[in-house]
């Protein structure tokens, strides 16, 4: 028996290592990863592989349990914690007093439908990708403005996040180092316009401001008004979605969020934490008649989550997402 073990143990180890190597190669191929071993003797390759398999173990362990959401690999599975932090970029409101003073309830107290979802609306562009720039705040400001402008004009125009990164020099907004969406609307209102994406394309790094309010062909939309929806009131958010369309929201991101794949996200690790990421809430619903959720749009591309979207538990201020909801009205 001992002699058989001497032969079998190396065999099983070899098969296991071969399978891991195949998984790693397939992941790199799927996401276009290429770590040139000739440049550093394989150090980068080994680092990324170690991060990937550490993440793989967490994903497998989570998915074996009884959870309302599942995790999966994506383009971030081999990223360092520092690199992942660069995907965030929303700070808390510049003035809590201002937030409180601007809090409003929607004008119409209409009957709420059981579900509402703008995800497939003509007035929402394909999910965008912010890259390694901490500009989520700019995307969070622009998407609701694009939607409301489209709803009013009956035609769609993609607007420029890059304009905010380059031109909004308010002390709160710092380009790729973070900002706040309501402050961004203040800026767009002051300069009398948001540029079209065609005239001011996204570059993912801070540059020189090139916006020209007098150039009519450059301006894609203008801000009429904006404000916060009542904080930590899910019903007010639902009413606001019905009245204004998608809402700018902020949330607290923790480790599991990066690997979200499907289901209703309800990780307790993000509860009662300060917000650090801007997202757009585009709808709500109920999963399997058991869990209420928000439909939330991210800015990490379509290969993250459910083609760029996530369902987040509704009515419990999960990840602080019901703390700072805000609306914008296009002129």
Protein architecture, described:
- It is a single chain.
- The chain is an alpha+beta fold and 331 residues long.
- It is globular, with a radius of gyration of 22 Å.
- Strands 1, 3, 7, 8, 9, 10 and 11 form a seven-stranded mixed sheet that branches.
- Mean pLDDT is 90; it is low at 1-16.
- It starts with a helix and ends with a strand.
- It folds into two domains: 2-66; 81-330, Alpha-Beta Complex (Cathepsin B, Chain A), CATH 3.90.70.
- It is built from nine helices and twelve strands.
Count the DSSP helices.
9
Q: Could you give a short account of the major beta sheet?
A: 7 strands, mixed
Return the CATH topology of the largest domain. Answer: Cathepsin B, Chain A
Shape: globular
| The CATH fourth-level homologous superfamily of the largest domain | Cysteine proteinases
Strand content: 15-25%
| Average pLDDT, all residues | 90
List the uncertain runs: 1-16
CATH class wording of the largest domain: Alpha Beta
Helix and strand run = HHHEHHEEHHHEEEHEEEEEE
For the record, the CATH architecture of the largest domain stands as Alpha-Beta Complex
Counting DSSP E segments of at least 2 residues, the number of strands comes to 12
Computed CA radius of gyration, to the nearest angstrom: 22 Å
GO molecular function: cysteine-type peptidase activity
Domain Peptidase C1A papain C-terminal: 112-329
Domain Cathepsin propeptide inhibitor: 24-84
Family: Belongs to the peptidase C1 family.
């Amino acid at each position: 028996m001992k002699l058989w073990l001497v032969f079998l143990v190396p065999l099983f180890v070899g098969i296991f290592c071969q399978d891991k190597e195949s998984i790693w190669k397939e992941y790199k191929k799927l996401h276009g990863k290429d770590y040139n071993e000739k440049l550093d003797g394989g150090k980068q390759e080994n680092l990324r592989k170690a991060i990937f398999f550490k993440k793989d173990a967490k994903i497998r362990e989570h998915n074996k349990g009884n959870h309302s959401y599942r995790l999966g690999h994506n383009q971030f599975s081999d990223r360092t914690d520092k690199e992942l932090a660069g995907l965030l970029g929303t700070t808390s409101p510049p003035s809590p007093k201002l937030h409180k003073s601007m809090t409003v309830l929607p004008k119409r107290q209409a009957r709420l439908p059981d579900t509402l979802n703008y995800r497939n609306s003509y007035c929402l562009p394909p999910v965008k990708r912010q890259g390694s720039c901490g500009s989520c705040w700019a995307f969070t400001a622009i998407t609701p403005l694009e939607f409301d402008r489209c709803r009013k004009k009956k035609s769609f125009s993609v607007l420029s996040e890059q304009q905010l990164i380059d031109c909004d020099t308010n002390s709160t907004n710092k380009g790729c180092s973070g900002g706040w969406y309501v402050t961004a609307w203040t800026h767009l209102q002051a300069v009398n316009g948001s540029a079209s994406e065609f005239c001011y394309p996204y570059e993912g790094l801070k540059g020189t401001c090139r916006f020209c309010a007098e150039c009519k062909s450059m301006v894609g939309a203008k801000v009429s008004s904006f404000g916060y929806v009542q904080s930590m009131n899910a019903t007010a958010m639902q009413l606001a979605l019905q009245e204004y369309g998608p809402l700018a929201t902020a949330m607290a991101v923790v480790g599991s969020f990066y690997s979200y794949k499907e289901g209703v996200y309800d990780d307790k690790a993000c509860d009662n934490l300060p917000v650090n990421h801007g997202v757009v809430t585009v709808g709500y619903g109920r999963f399997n008649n058991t869990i209420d959720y928000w439909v939330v749009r991210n800015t990490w591309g379509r290969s993250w989550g459910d083609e760029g979207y996530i369902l987040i538990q509704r009515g419990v201020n999960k990840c602080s997402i019901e703390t700072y909801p805000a609306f914008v009205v296009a002129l």
